[in-house]
Design brief:
- Helices cover 55% and strands 11% of the residues.
- By secondary structure, it is α/β, with parallel strands linked by helices.
- Among the domains are: 86 residues, Arginyl tRNA synthetase N-terminal domain (Gyrase A, domain 2, 2-Layer Sandwich), CATH 3.30.1360; 109 residues, no CATH class; 178 residues, Isoleucyl-tRNA Synthetase, Domain 1 (Orthogonal Bundle).
- The strands form four sheets. Strands 7-6-5-11-12 form a five-stranded parallel beta sheet, sandwiched between helices. A four-stranded antiparallel beta sheet has the order 1-2-4-3.
- A hairpin with a 7-residue loop joins β9 and β10.
- It starts with a helix and ends in a 9-residue tail after the last helix.
- The protein binds one RNA strand through α2, α15, α16, β14 and α19.
Length: 595
RNA sequence: GGCCCUGUAGCUCAGCUGGAUAGAGCGAGAGUCUUCUAAACUCUAGGUCCUGCGUUCGAGUCGCAGCAGGGUCACCA
């Protein structure tokens, strides 16, 4: 009985096909589906694909296979045939054994990584240090964390890394504006979070810069030229140059302001509940990749133009030529990324490299993979760009110019306030200590936010409607958290459980429904990991919570007088609570014991 | 213009490798708390699955064409 029923079924069906009709079909290729609710049964085989070779009617084929499978498997209590659909009915004892032996385990559905599993490196977040995090970063961070959790739950040895873009012209803009207009402001003196303070000066730069450009244009200078020659831009460029030369003064300012930003980011990461095994800084990696370019030149897969610049010819792959070194020998983004990919591969002995980066960089990663392949790295095809869609607002895209950017910290604050209001309205948590209440509001707020974002397919653009995101009813994080809290309340009251009788208990429809959802957890995690899709896990958790609530609504548990039934139902409760906790944990969402 | 992605209920989204009468939530309407947490449950209304052609016993799902929206085609990252 240890074998999974779906595996048993496909195995038995494969044998029946061979014995009855001489049809060779591997068990893995036999597609079983869940029986639709309106029909009797648990799993359905569609026999149409086999009727031709069997030379019989669909009904006859279904009946013959049904009979053979029933004879072969004691877990199959019966079957029924409707047209070409063969519905298998699974014995209650199977579900009860499943509950007692597997679903009841606290780590049910999770695959523990083996010690020798090759590490998988997931890069996510990767912020610039010139302004605070916004809603777009939130999707990135939540996805990155969750996919890491998901891959780990599927048995991978995951390393989470962050590549902070801590250098470049944008940082210099903030620095310059702070020098000019900052009057020595610090996070301490203003009480502002460091990343917000630096962001403020980035905006300040832009304001004054635009003014300069405007004035130049009014004096008859072409726009292109004005943008290039505005004094502030020239000065920012000079500052970048001084930075690259290691100018002490510039470096000191750079370190000071980046330090403010990191303190701010850490706070936001902390609130979001995300973290990293290793943080890379571009200031330390931006020179990487040059040796790779030399190697590519030696191999003949790259070429040098007359002006000295180095390129990769991708026209054979249907793409263009890609620059890798400028004529002055400096590297570009692609060059760095080639270098950091190799670094990461070496640092961790990684087999797979996963990049959680928005879909506006699809082209970049396509090229990155191709070039790594041309450079002869066998792991190039294991580079995976987890390309996620943009977050849009009800009135369109976020535009910093129009001030429609949703700030990450503000959003979390807002969610926490709402969570507190909602909770106070319900008045169920008055007996909790103030600390416990605060913690509860926090995990409810983040549960709502995370679930709202993670439940949609990562590859798709999504609409972030603030009003809906703080909804706590229906298909939301708090709905699932609430379901968990209710169950835990029952399990606490039940006390210690007695042994489950797996032979003399009859299941009702609702119980069987819950067990079937529980039963599909391992395959859900496997396919979600395969698709890099936390959304599939979110949908699963919702399905499970719904199935449970429906059961809970009209089935007595602690009030049940039949002890065997009562024990079984309590076990079912415990198993659901545990599965909800584990799946929500994959999403990075904490579930409360009470709420 | 080339390439890529998306198009399912009023709104936001599910629909896995093609399979029975396309599903949820929100919103609208109607019920269910002296009983294990009603942040819940139950029911009703709501659909040319963008359009057309094709492949197939069978298409929301696959192919082609078109329409609409988005992204991208930097010596930026």
């Amino acid at each position: 009985m240890a074998l999974n029923i779906t595996d048993s079924l496909t195995g038995a069906i494969a044998r029946a096909l061979k014995d009855l009709y001489g049809v060779e079909q591997s068990p893995a290729s036999i597609a079983l589906q869940d029986t639709r609710r309106d029909f009797r049964g648990d799993y359905t085989l569609v026999v149409f694909p086999y009727v031709k070779q069997a030379r019989k009617s669909p009904e006859a084929v279904a009946a013959e296979i049904g009979e053979a499978v029933k004879a072969a498997l004691p877990e199959v209590a019966g079957y029924n045939v409707i047209k070409g659909f063969l519905n298998f009915e699974i014995a209650d004892s199977y579900w009860l054994h499943f509950l007692a032996e597997r679903a009841g385990q606290s780590d049910y559905g999770l695959v523990h990584p083996t010690a020798d599993a090759a590490p998988v490196v997931v890069e996510y977040s990767s912020p610039n240090t010139n302004k605070p995090l916004h809603l777009g970063h939130i999707r990135n961070n939540l996805l990155g964390w969750s996919v890491s959790q998901l891959l780990a739950a599927a048995g991978a040895n995951v390393k989470k890394v962050n590549l902070v873009n801590d250098r470049g012209i944008h940082i210099c803009k903030s620095m310059l504006a702070w020098l000019r207009y900052g009057n020595g402001e610090t996070p301490e003196s203003t009480g502002m979070k460091g990343d917000h303070l630096v962001g403020k000066y980035y905006v300040e730069f832009d304001k004054h810069y635009k003014e300069e450009v405007k004035q130049l244009m009014e004096s008859g200078v072409e726009e292109e030229q004005a943008k290039r020659e505005a004094p502030l831009m020239v000065e920012a460029q000079q500052m970048l140059k001084r930075w690259e030369e290691g100018d002490k003064e510039v470096r000191a300012l750079w370190e000071k302001m980046n330090g403010w930003v990191y303190a701010g980011f850490d706070e936001t990461y902390d609130r979001l509940g995300v973290g990293f095994d290793k943080v890379y800084y571009e200031s330390q990696t931006y020179l990487l990749g040059k040796e790779l370019v030399q190697k590519g030149l030696d191999m003949g897969v790259l070429f040098r133009k007359e002006d000295g610049s180095v390129w990769c010819d991708l026209t054979g792959d249907g793409l263009d030529q890609k620059l890798l070194l400028r004529k002055d020998g400096t590297s570009v983004y692609m060059t760095q990324d080639l270098g950091t990919a190799l670094l990461r591969h070496k640092d961790f002995g990684a087999e797979r490299l996963i990049y959680v980066v928005g879909n506006e960089q699809d082209y970049h990663f396509k090229v990155l993979k191709l070039i790594l392949g041309k450079l002869g790295f066998p792991w190039a095809d294991k580079v995976y760009h987890l390309s996620y869609g943009m977050v849009e607002l009800p009135n369109g895209k976020m535009k910093s110019r129009e001030g429609t950017v949703v700030d990450a910290d503000d959003l979390i604050d807002e969610m926490e306030r709402t969570a507190e209001e909602m909770s106070r309205e319900h008045g169920k948590n008055d007996e909790l200590s103030p600390e416990e209440q605060k913690h509860l509001y926090h995990i409810l707020a983040l549960g709502a936010l995370k679930y709202f974002i993670l439940k949609v397919d990562p590859t798709k653009n999504m609409l972030f409607n603030p009003a809906e995101s703080i909804d706590f009813n229906g298909n939301t994080g708090p709905f699932i958290q609430y379901t968990h809290a209710r169950i835990r309340s029952i399990v606490r009251k039940a006390g210690s459980a007695s042994a489950l009788d797996t032979e003399h208990v009859a299941l009702n429809e609702k119980e069987r429904g819950v067990l079937k959802v529980l039963h599909s957890l391992p395959e859900t995690i496997a396919s979600a990991a395969n698709a890099y899709s936390p959304a599939m896990v979110a949908n699963y958790a919702y399905e499970l919570a719904k199935a449970f609530n429906s059961f809970y609504q009209d089935t007595p548990i602690l009030r049940e007088e039949n002890q065997q039934l009562k024990t079984m139902r309590i076990s079912l409760c415990a198993a659901v609570a545990s599965a909800l906790k584990n799946t929500m944990n994959i999403l990075g969402i904490e579930v409360p014991e009470r709420m």
